[in-house]
């Protein structure tokens, strides 16, 4: 199973910032934002409301939570019906 690390870069110039952007655009890099995590919480809440705690491992494993607008979209796209 893949593991991920979150890094914070300090930069003092536009050249340094461009170097960071170059790293972030590599295939191994995944852009992450607070929006992704807020949406993950929404999916978790939706799973809890529907009594689908079996989906939590799947939700926690998502790398792009914005791929699915709703829990039902996620279930349908991944054949996760109960």
Description of the molecule:
- The longest helix is centred in the middle third of the chain and has 16 residues, at 34-49.
- The chain has helices spanning 14-24, 34-49, 56-61, 71-77.
- It has 4 helices and no strands.
- It has 82 residues and is mainly α.
- Helices cover 49% and strands 0% of the residues.
- It starts with 13 loop residues before the first helix and ends in a 5-residue tail after the last helix.
Arithmetic mean of pLDDT: 88
Query: Based on CA inertia axes, which overall geometry fits?
Result: elongated
Largest beta-sheet details: none
> What does the radius of gyration come to?
16 Å
Could you write a compact summary of the structure shown?
By secondary structure, this protein is mainly alpha-helical. Helix content is 49%, strand content 0%.
């Amino acid at each position: 199973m893949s593991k991920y690390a979150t890094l914070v870069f300090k930069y003092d110039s536009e050249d340094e910032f461009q170097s960071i952007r170059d790293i972030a655009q590599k295939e191994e890099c995944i852009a992450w934002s607070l929006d992704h995590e807020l949406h993950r919480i929404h999916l978790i809440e939706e799973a809890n409301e529907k009594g689908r705690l079996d989906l939590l491992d799947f939700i926690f494993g998502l790398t792009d939570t914005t791929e699915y607008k709703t829990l039902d979209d996620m279930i349908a796209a991944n054949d996760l019906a109960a």
